[in-house]
User: Which sequence fits this backbone?
């Protein structure tokens, strides 16, 4: 910076003074500029080192902050929990090697058992299968198989599926899948599933034997549906039947396709079979309820400590609001099935036939965890339109809770309406004044007992070993031309005859499973023959055929038809 000083002296002196000041200022500036340049050079030399030191310090602090041992954490201010301490002690001090992941899974489930029976931890290796069931599909080749004599046998091929398009046929035997030998090496069903399934669009080469000829077939994996609707058909000119096995994200769509098809065939009355349906996606059940209920009726509502009350109401005109409706239920009908049944019972929209339902009134939400596992946590309860919770008590623990279902078979509840248990302290009234109960599932309007035919230990063993379905497959392969001559399941049900020679063949087949049928009663024999007939219908027409034949002797179906025809 330059400073100019005006003076009162003469011109000469003033000029000298100005010159001296200017020279002094110039020298001062040069001196400072020199020092500044020297300082900048030193900083430039040391700057990379300073950055390195800063980065290393940051990494050290970050490591200390995320240390696996909380007591060594840089910002630790709390004592370690016993759970973590015990885990570390087992890992570092225990006498033998321990699978810590499996141990932690068990510990987590033990914690959840203290909450309720339906809050569960899902390990990563199980999550894919569960998610596939909810999604209603997986990616594979579309074949149903079983293992006979250590060999994979194709029982059925999905029509128009990847395997069907590639040329796989019922009766084919798998020798290799990819590079893996699958015949004669004690392969399990789970292992073969993993080999056959994969990402959409990927290819798998399968070496098969058909009769005595070996073939190599390349198959491109694609979406394989896990159907919710097992069967949908007209029982007579006006009465239709739909069987739902679960509530996946595809259930409502499948149900509407079935309902629409039946209406085109003259549907006026409907039997909806929910027996053995363990539930699933809540929204799918409420969407189906909307098709039966008019106006903006309440279907259900949910509420929990951290989940504010949420109502599910009818939103549109339903496709079956006026036709007669019967629902079938049993002790296996749970969760979303009970939501649907509760709504229709409370609004007096349907007649319910069968046995008391499971009694699950809890709403779960699935939370995915960082290691690929998941937590399905109960977040709310659901209530029927009149305000009842049908959740059974689980205060005595998980074992007692699930044992209550098996106890129904032992204490006579599945055989007599007088033995049905319900909570008489939770009494509600429907709009029409009918008494309904909470606290223990849905009690049907008409009780139909379990088939009380007493089976011998021999016959029970036949069913337990899967002998009947295995025999049906073998019988089909040996009698394809005869069986394929039947036009449909109705024709088959009326005209198929299981001969004495066929019975001898079956008894010989059963003996391979160490079952002797010489001493069974005629009643048991007839039951077994009818079961074989049902299995053959399934082999020919899948689940549709199974139910069309089985329903002709089903007591709950007979009761439903009796009520509908009044």
Assistant:
């Amino acid at each position: 910076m330059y400073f100019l000083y005006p003076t009162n002296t003469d011109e000469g002196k003033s000029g000298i003074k100005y010159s001296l000041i200017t020279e002094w200022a110039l020298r001062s500036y040069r001196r400072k500029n020199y020092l500044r340049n020297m300082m900048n050079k030193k900083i430039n030399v040391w700057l990379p080192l300073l950055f390195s030191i800063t980065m290393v310090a940051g990494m050290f602090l970050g490591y200390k902050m995320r240390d696996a041992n909380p007591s060594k954490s840089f910002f630790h201010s709390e004592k370690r929990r016993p759970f973590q301490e015990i885990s570390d002690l087992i890992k570092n001090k225990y006498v033998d090697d321990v699978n810590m992941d499996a141990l932690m899974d068990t510990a987590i489930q033990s914690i959840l058992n203290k909450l309720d029976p339906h809050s569960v931890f899902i390990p990563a290796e199980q999550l894919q299968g569960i998610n596939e069931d909810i999604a209603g599909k997986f990616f594979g080749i579309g074949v149903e198989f079983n293992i006979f004599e250590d060999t994979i046998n194709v029982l059925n091929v999905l029509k128009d599926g990847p395997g069907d398009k590639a040329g796989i046929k019922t009766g084919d035997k798998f020798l290799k899948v990819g590079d893996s030998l699958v015949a004669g090496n004690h392969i399990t069903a789970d292992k073969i599933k993993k080999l056959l399934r994969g990402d959409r669009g990927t290819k798998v080469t399968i070496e098969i034997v058909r009769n005595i000829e070996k073939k190599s077939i390349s198959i491109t994996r694609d979406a394989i549906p896990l159907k919710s609707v097992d069967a949908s058909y007209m029982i007579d000119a006006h009465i239709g039947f739909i069987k739902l096995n679960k509530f996946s994200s595809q259930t409502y769509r499948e149900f509407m396709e079935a309902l629409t098809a039946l209406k085109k065939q003259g549907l006026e009355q409907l039997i909806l079979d929910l027996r053995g349906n363990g539930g699933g996606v809540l929204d799918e059940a409420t969407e189906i309820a909307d098709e039966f209920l008019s106006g903006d009726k309440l279907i259900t509502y949910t509420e929990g400590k951290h989940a504010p009350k949420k109502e599910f109401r009818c939103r549109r005109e339903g496709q079956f609001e006026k036709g007669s409706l019967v629902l079938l239920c049993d002790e296996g009908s749970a969760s979303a099935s009970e939501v649907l049944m509760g709504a229709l019972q409370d609004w007096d929209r349907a007649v319910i036939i069968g046995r008391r339902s499971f009694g699950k009134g809890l709403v779960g939400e699935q939370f995915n965890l960082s290691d690929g596992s998941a937590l399905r946590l109960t977040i709310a309860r659901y209530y029927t339109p009149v305000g009842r919770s049908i959740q059974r008590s689980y205060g005595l623990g998980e074992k007692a809770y699930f044992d209550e279902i098996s106890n129904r078979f032992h204490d006579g509840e599945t055989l007599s309406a007088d033995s049905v248990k319900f909570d008489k302290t939770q009494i509600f009234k429907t709009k029409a004044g009918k008494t309904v109960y909470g606290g223990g599932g849905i009690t049907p309007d008409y009780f139909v007992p379990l088939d009380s035919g007493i089976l011998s230990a021999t016959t029970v063993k036949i069913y337990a070993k899967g002998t009947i379905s295995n025999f049906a497959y073998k019988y089909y392969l040996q009698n394809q031309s005869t069986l394929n001559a039947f036009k449909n399941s109705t024709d088959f049900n009326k005209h198929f005859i299981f001969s004495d020679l066929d019975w001898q063949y079956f008894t010989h087949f059963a003996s391979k499973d160490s079952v002797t049928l010489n001493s069974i009663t005629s009643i048991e024999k007839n039951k077994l023959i009818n079961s074989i007939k049902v299995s053959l219908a399934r082999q020919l027409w899948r689940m549709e055929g199974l139910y069309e034949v089985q329903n002709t002797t089903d007591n709950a179906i007979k009761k439903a038809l009796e009520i509908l025809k009044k």
